[in-house]
Each structure stands twice: as C-alpha cells, then as structure tokens.
Write a structure and sequence with these properties.
This protein is an alpha+beta fold and 427 residues long. The chain is built from 9 helices and 24 strands. Helix content is 18%, strand content 41%. Bound molecules: zinc ion (ZN).
C-alpha cells in the first residue's frame, strides 16, 4: 500500500457518505481501491503506507466516472464488510514503490487541459504565498507557485493550495521532485495544479533523478522555455516608469527588454474594417500556432502539428495608442491582454465582425479615453531598416470583483509616493 487518502465525506442523491482510498501496487502495476461508509471504520486503521497486505474478497470493476488519478489501470477495486485485509511481514520480498508514469514537460506542453499527469523535474523556484478569491464564493484561497524544470528544455508553474502552500518549507534550487496526479490547466498560459489525489516525493531512487541532477549541473536551468506566463498579475511587481523613461532606457540597450508598469490613457484603437484584430490559431491548447485554410480540405492547417482541424481559435493582435504626460506611443496587445482590455474573447469579436454587428464599434469606442495600469515590455527592434523601440502590453491590472474599475489607485498612490520621496531625497 503506497498511498492512503484522508477520510472524505460526500453527498449525493442517496444522502451523505464517507470514503477513503488507497493505492495498491504489485510488480504488475497499480490499482486504486476505495472503501465506503460502514467499511471505513473497519479498514481505515488497518492500512498503513509502506506495509504489505494480503487482500481477499475485494470487488474489481471497470473504472468509470470522472478520472481522479493518472493510473493507467482500467479497473478499480472496492472493499466491503466481507473483505479480508491481513498485514504480512516484509519477508515476502521487496516492497514495491509508488508507480509513476512520468511525462516530460515537453510532452505536457502538447497534452490537453484537464489531463492528469505524473512528472519528475527539478524544483527550480518557490514563489511567495498569495491569496486569490475563490470562483465559487470569493472566499480567499491561499496558493503558492512552484516552478518545475526538466531536461527537455521547458519549465512550468505548479500551483499548490491551502495549508500545503502555507506550510511549504522546501526551497527552490535543484531538488528533484517526483509528482503524481497533477492536473494540466490553461491558467497563465499553461500550468499544473495539484488535485486532492496529488502527492510527491523528493529525490526518488530512480535513474531520472540522476539524469536531472546531471543536467542541472552541466547545462544550468537558464536556457529553458517557460510554459507558464510569468508576467502579469500575481507575479512580482514591475518597476514603475513613464513611457519616456522606458523608451529612453530601451534605446541603445542592444535589444534588451525593459519591463515596466505605468498608468496611461488609451487614445486610439485601430478597428476600422481593414484593421487586423486577431489571427486564427491552432485549436490545440498550448500550440497557438497561426493556421491557414487548407485549399483541398477546406480545413485549418497547423504547420506545427502538421494536422488539419475543422475549427480554429481567434487570438487577439490589437494595436492601440497610449499616452501619459510624457509621451504618446503605439503598443501591441496579444491575446490575454486583449481579453483584459475588451472584456471579451477574440472569438466573440470575430463573430461580431463577421456578422457586421454594430455593437462592435461601441466596444472599441468604450475603451477610448480610459486609463489603465499597464504592464509593458519595451524593446528596441529593427523596423524597415530603422531602430525603434517597440512597446507591447503584457497585461492590464483589472481589479477583481469590479471589471469597471480599471485603475489600481493603491498601486498608483504608492508609485506617486515613491516619486515624491525620491524628489525629496535629491535635495
Ligand atoms: Zn498546432
């Protein structure tokens, strides 16, 4: 027995109930075993993680319903009052260990949202605890992001929750973690989240552990591609700069990007009939590659997946002009920031545009003359043989709870106070 869940309660049409589950492993694989209601008190004290058991008169049935574990077993087991569980001494041989079916982070980048996976990776970074309002009733949820990196050249954020997040006491560095039953989600680009059946261990005794340590010491972890969007709300603050200061800093910086935040007013948004508002992208989550209509099949062709799809997703590419008291500049917005700005998905905008919906103009006009707290990237690029600083908006701070309040007065006040302090200390 390699895992025992806490006691859980549930309620359905038949009323309330209790259950717990254990994971059983032998040399042939693993199986999930659930114990319900009256039987809980009989077996809960009997099972101890790491012990060997003889089990008889269990019931095995085909697995159905929602998938709670990444086990590849098509069957699951239940125990009833007639079942017999007898601990046996470990002279029977080696105690099997947790069985994982690891996926590399490169594979995770290609799997659909909602899929459960096991991964083994280096714990490269541990972020601070934050709290987010729950979707259900807005009560605050405690969470923490762990960044995992492996030798396929990718890193990804893993969200852990509640007490586990609060009491987390491992530091980021190069420990190897094996994790079971993580859920893939499309939060912040692509990320992983723990579920109630997730568990993990450090430095598991498997060859991959040594390979990963080797990779970390020879290659380092700097040149990896992150699957999770690390900019935007929830991550560290970008320094506050005016548009002019950011432009000046990026000028002559040899293509080094300047990340900053600022409050600016939207003075123009390109949305005439010739304006590009979005591009059509691959429907596979995480791919987002631009797709074209395949002339033969009339389907969408993705050059990255080399596949035709009947549907494609619109993703924003918007051009807006923003102004503060120092400068007026064009800036580009991509999908996530576009959704924050317009409060709609690009697919909705596409539908409105294709049906010549007059409402569309109002949506764009409603943004004009509004102020926002932007997080922006400024970088010097060659454009038509000329060097110029290009601005792209990474995210917009929209205050939770009230999408109509665009300006974070608290953040803005802090910025102004900081500036005043600076001015005073110059004297
Ligand atoms: Zn694709």
């Amino acid at each position: 027995m390699v895992y025992k869940s806490p006691l859980k309660t549930y309620s359905n049409a038949k009323g309330e109930g209790r259950l717990f589950n254990v994971e059983l492993v032998d040399s042939s694989g693993d199986i999930n075993c659930t114990i319900f209601n009256d039987t809980v008190d009989t077996f809960f004290p009997v099972f101890e993680v790491g012990n060997l058991y003889f089990i008889s008169r269990g019931t095995v049935k085909q697995r159905n319903g929602p998938k709670f574990t990444s086990s590849s077993n098509l069957y699951e087991m239940t125990l009833s009052q007639g079942s017999i569980v007898v601990p046996c001494s470990d002279e029977a041989g080696d105690i099997p260990v947790v069985s994982y079916s690891f996926r590399s982070l490169a594979e995770v980048s290609q799997l659909p949202d909602g899929e459960l996976v096991d991964v083994i990776a280096l714990l490269s970074k541990v972020s601070e605890v934050t709290s987010v309002p729950s979707k259900k009733d807005s009560t605050p949820l405690i969470k923490r992001l762990l960044t995992l990196t492996d030798d396929t050249g990718f890193s990804i954020d893993l969200t852990i929750w509640g007490e586990t997040a609060e009491e987390w006491n491992h530091e980021g560095g190069n420990s190897v973690m094996a994790l079971k039953n993580l859920k893939i989600s499309d939060f912040n680009g692509r990320s992983l989240s723990t579920t109630r059946n997730s568990r993990w261990e450090f430095e598991p005794q498997v060859p991959r552990t040594h390979q990963l340590h080797n990779y970390a010491s020879t290659q380092g972890l700097d040149n990896v591609q992150t699957l999770s969007r690390t900019v935007g709300s929830g991550t560290g603050p970008s320094p506050y700069k005016t548009l002019r200061d950011a432009r000046d800093e990026a000028t002559g910086a040899g293509g080094k990007a300047v990340f900053f935040s600022t409050m600016a007013t939207v003075t123009f948004i390109k949305h005439d009939e010739n304006a590009v508002l979005y591009y059509m992208s691959c429907p596979v989550p995480g791919c987002n590659k631009k797709v074209k209509v395949d002339e033969d099949t009339n389907m969408w062709f993705c050059p990255k997946c080399s596949k035709n799809y009947p549907n494609a997703n619109a993703r924003y590419v918007l051009n807006i002009k923003i102004s503060d008291d120092t400068l007026s500049e064009f800036a580009t917005l991509f999908n996530d920031a576009g959704e924050q700005l317009l409060g709609k998905e690009a697919n909705d905008i596409r539908q409105m545009k294709e049906s010549f919906d007059p409402e569309l103009d109002f949506i764009f006009e409603s943004i004009i003359e509004k102020r926002f707290n932007f997080k922006i990237k400024a970088v010097e690029e060659t454009y038509q043989d000329e060097l110029r600083v290009k601005f792209s908006i990474q995210s917009i701070d929209v205050l939770p709870g009230d999408a109509k309040v665009y300006i974070s007065y608290l953040a803005e006040s802090k910025n102004i106070l900081e500036k005043i302090t600076q001015l005073l200390s110059v004297k």
